[in-house]
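Page 47, continued from p. 46.
Same chain as before, 159 aa.
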Amino acid sequence: MTHLPPVSLRAATTNDRRTIWDWRNHFVSRDLYEPDQDITYGQYQDWFDGTLKDGAQTLMIGQIQSFRMALIWCRQPIPDEWTIQLFLKPGYCGRKVLSDVIAHTVEHLRIGHEARKLTARIPNINPAAAYAFEQCGFLCDVLGETINCQLELPVIAQS
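Result:
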């Protein structure tokens, strides 16, 4: 098995917008993430740009070296709690990189945003994603058509 170089995260920019929209509309992504939702580029552009400006949301890019391979969308519905959605670039599914992306996301939210509770909701047609979250300490339960994964984080001691 070929081992990939380490994954890193960076903030998303408007330069990522078209590439991410192309991934989102790829047939593999549509099957695993949002099979019934069509969205035009204009609609996506409005969402993407609005999310970049919203302090209660963050968009990050997972990359291997300088190659984009994941979009991480984090929303803060209430203080200390964040909801995570991850989208892998088609071609990276099944290559065992999702756990690395999740681990980096958890650390970013724990340290950078003092998150205490993280939640990910995954379509139940994608159990491999739930398994990757479990590998990172999340507890997952099937709730109808969704797998709900949650992680409680310890409070970081202030020095």
